[in-house]
Predict the structure.
Amino acid sequence: MIYNVLTIAGSDSGGGAGIQADLKAISARGCYGLSVITALTAQNTVSVDAIYPVAIDFIRAQCETVARDIRIDAIKVGMLGTVEVTDLVSAFLATQSCPIVVDPVMVAKSGDRLLHRDAVEALRQRLLPLATVITPNLPEAADLLGVAEATDDQSMLGQARALQALGARAVLLKGGHLLGDQLTDLLLTDRVDWFRGPRIQTHNTHGTGCSLSAALAAELTKSQDLLHAVQVARGYLTEAIRHADALSVGSGHGPVHHFWEQTR
């Protein structure tokens, strides 16, 4: 059986993140990708030059039209941008009974803000409690909690627990912003699981968060075991980063190689 995964996110004209990255990752993991586009961006590997929000009624129409006809087996949520979109998507998610992965996209790798500051509270109160798992990086976790960014295992665990207290059933806290040659991620459910490995030396890491959360949503259609799904999704992304330099896309932070398995 081929499962259907819906991504609700913004479009990246450079193809490395957002809807484009999600659909590539979903396809690479053997699922069929559906999409609801929340915003259009004019961006490349260096900057986000413009953001054009999609009309709220059209976002609603996309959600309703897809759900009316197509079975949705998992949902990944990315860039929402505004309070209105966050409220709309939260209301839609409340009608769904599948696994939901929320990647709280707030700031692009270029430094451009993608979630309005007044929308953070809406995300905290209405969206996070609907999530099967949330996948923030360290700056996003700090932004959600209104605290300084975590710098070690102890502060990562404390922030993951604080995020779980907001209502998310599980937290995958990504530690890629920590200094050093080792990467550390943390999965908090009713237990604590650490993932550690060597940092891959490449500048081509655009879209890593989008790709991981989309791959995780795809894996959750196959297995309700969240720990196993995280392990598989992380393994896929690790290799997508490892093979990223095989691509030649832009002069800044290029994308990961979503289809590394198909081109070996």
